[in-house]
Amino acid sequence: xxxxxxxxxxxxSTGHSAAALLxxxxxRALLAPSIHNTQPWRFVLTGDxxxxxxxxxxxxxxxxxxxxxxxxxxxxALLHARITLQAAGHExxxxxxxxxxxxxxxxxxxxxxxxxxxxxxxxxxxxxxxxTNRRQFIGxxxxxxxxxxxxxxxHTEGAVLVPAVSPEAVAAVADTSAxxxxxxxxxxxxLAEIAAWTTDDPRRCDGVQMASVPRNGGGSSEGPMVREFxxxxxxxxxxxxxxxxxxxxxxxxxxxxDERTWLRTGEALERIWLTLTDAGFSxxxxxQAVEVRSAHRMLQERLGLSAIPQILLRAGQAPQxxxxxxxxxxxxxxxxxxTTADPTPQGGTP
Length: 350
What we know:
alpha+beta; NADH Oxidase; 10 helices; 13 strands; 19% strand; globular
């Protein structure tokens, strides 16, 4: 029997109700990466839309005082929702920050018309395979053709991807990251925050697991350091040796530095990350150099960038990493009937 077309929320649908498609999108958004696995979001299903909401109670006060990385994390979740709808054969209609009186509402996603979206199925599958991998890389670095493709992806998502591949660029990133890391590790508040969000408790559903953390000394003498989560010597992964040239450093930048830009940065980051996963590569963020204001300026100056650095990604080949734990859907996804008080934003975009 062929697919039955039906009208749902003003759009042609492929036999699945908008509500069912949006519920799956919300559940797939739960699997997005977030700073320190804080999962700083809530998802509200209204029947005709999925609201992605920031959860300020999960913002990192020391590391992320402006909420930049919180919003980037929400952008990753938004990308998952978009990919899920595309893989189901629908154009996602996205309204970013649709209500100025409701700043926690970062995006409203609706089910758009039926369409064909090449590659969406592979990226949807990659959602389940993607990991934050802090292991030492092995094998060859990213091929140039893939790097060029990732730069194009960043551009389509409104961001700028700068590969730091020359010896001078690698040295600049490594020096700046080490400078920022020294500042952060000397901050008692930062250390307390790291300790609070690192866990070996098998019952905990958030935070960074010790199973995914290198033992003390997670840095490399030839590249920027993996963040030191192992404050008590309990990390499960081997201490990385010299990375040599097996990792590729990808600096994701933006033309602005406001909440809307941060959200688009998160969308670009996750599309890049899923593309890497689909191509058989692993990745993990290195954010120290963009967290410390003085280091952030140093990085921009040393690389001669006009765009604003937002997040650094290390990518390469590595053994599989453990999946991050997730909060139960019942704690994060709620349902609310649509009301006339809901904003009706204009100019939604894919």
